[in-house]
Structures are given as structure tokens and as C-alpha cells.
Amino acid sequence: MNALVASTRAELLRLRRWPALWVLLGVWVTLNLSFGYVFDYIAYRTGDAAGPSTTGRSQAELLAGLLPSAAPVTLTQGMPMFGGALVMIMGALAVGSGYGWGTWKTVFTQGPSRAAAFGGTLAALASFVVGLVLVSAVVDLGVSCGIAAIEGQAIDLPSAGDWLSALGTGLLVLGMWAAAGVLVGVLTRSPALGVGLGLVWALVVENLLRGVSGVLDPIAAVTDHLPGTAAGSLVGALSTAESGTGAGTPGVFDTLSGTAAIGWLAVYLAGFVVLALALVRRRDVA
């Protein structure tokens, strides 16, 4: 246990001083604000609702999605698409760079056990995901309160239950994609190749498979349970349950029920972690 704690503290120190972490965090906050608030607010003020998540929505609906009561749902809207891709990059970089720099070889031959060292990396990445979700929640709530004040609307804060549902959804979705990035980084032993293959899968392959699933029924059975489908379905279920504004948002689906999506995400998260740990413990690092 002491070795795991020491490895976690060392990995947290490395990640805190790694520019890549702060760049990805800044990109996420920027994209989250842009697609969650800026474009919708422009559409509301100009009356030009032509975006993918604004088409067909009245100005009253657009404003409702920008107010504090909708902040929990808005928080999760971008997670199935660019949020998942960003944390996958972080997972692949954190693990794959250790192979490129030779640090895994040094740690595994001179430091704690492989399980403790790799567990420290996983714990540090989990801390990154938790921090990202919490920071986003605070930023979204602050921006939505500002919009409510500017538009002269009442500041009705979301209930604790709404926040717990949104934070749980965010942690599960982003945690699953971070674990996927870790597995890709272990498999490729290269940060660049791991990031590239992960993004191709998350942003291209899954969408192409969904495109052909209407032609071949067996493929539909597979695409309905892919990681991206499960993540999008959980966010879609949250949006529906809280009367949110997820309809039409890229990456948000209603393919699976909320319970089924949680189950599949938990399976993928556990499976990615266990497989990555097994590979790290058994493979030669030379």
C-alpha cells in the first residue's frame, strides 16, 4: 500500500508539471464553454438557430438551456464527443510516454512492483478526471448564473440530486475513455501512435460503423453496445430525465437505456483497466 501511495504521489507531481495536462484542460474548458454556452447564446440573441444543437429550438428553449437550472445537463453534453477524445489523449500520453522516455523500464527494474507503479499512474489519471469534471461544473454554473443575471432571469440553482447525477455521469463517461487511452498506450507503447489510433477509433471508426449498421443488421447489434454508444446513451438518458437540451447534440444518443448504458460503461472501464494491468505485469519492457 505504501508503494502505491508513493507511486500515486510521484505521478501526480509529474502530471502537475506536465504542460500537456494544462493544455488539455484548457482545451476542454474552452470547447465546453463554446459549444455549451457561447454558440447557443449567440443563436438566442440573434435568433439564428442554425447549429446542430440549436436547430428547431425556440429562443425560450435556447435561453432555458443556458440558465443555472440546466447547468448539470449542459456539463455533460460535450463529454461523449470531444470530452472523451481529450481524456483518451491524456491516458495514452501518460502511459505511452513512459515507454518512449524509458521511465517504465527504470521504474520496473529499480522501483516498486509493476502493479504498484502502474496503479499509481491510474490513480493519478483518476484524480485528473475528477478535477476536470469538478472544474467544469464550477465554470458552467458561474457562466449560467452570469447569463441569468444579464438576461434578468431568476437564478434557480439545480438540486443536489441533479448535480450528483451529472457528476456521476461525467466521471463514468470520462473515466471509461481515460481507461481506453491507457489501454491503447500500453498496447502501442508509443504516445503518438496511441493518441492517433485512439482518436481514429473514437471519432471515425465508431461513426462509420453506425453509418453502415442500417445496411447490415449484425453490425447494428455491435454498434449499439460500443463504448461511444454507451457514453452517448448515458448522457442522452440524463438529458431526457432532467428535461435537458441534448436532442441533436453530436455524440448524444437514445440507443440504450440509462441503466444499460451504466452497465456497459462499467464493463468497459473495468475491462480496459484489467487488461492494461495484465499486459503491464506480463510483458517485457525491453
- Percent strand equals under 5%
- Nearest-integer average pLDDT: 87
Largest sheet: none
* The number of domains: 1
Protein name: ABC-type transport system involved in multi-copper enzyme maturation permease subunit
Keywords: Membrane, Transmembrane, Transmembrane helix
Transmembrane segments: 20-39, 81-104, 116-143, 163-184, 191-209, 261-280
Describe this structure in words.
The chain is mainly alpha-helical. It has one domain. It contains twelve helices and no strands. The longest helix is centred in the middle third of the chain and has 37 residues, at 114-150. The model has no long low-confidence stretch (mean pLDDT 87). This is ABC-type transport system involved in multi-copper enzyme maturation permease subunit.
Outline the secondary-structure elements.
Blueprint: H1 2-16, H2 19-46, H3 59-66, H4 71-77, H5 79-101, H6 103-110, H7 114-150, H8 160-188, H9 191-212, H10 217-223, H11 227-241, H12 258-282
Keywords: Membrane, Transmembrane, Transmembrane helix
Organism: Petropleomorpha daqingensis
Protein name: ABC-type transport system involved in multi-copper enzyme maturation permease subunit
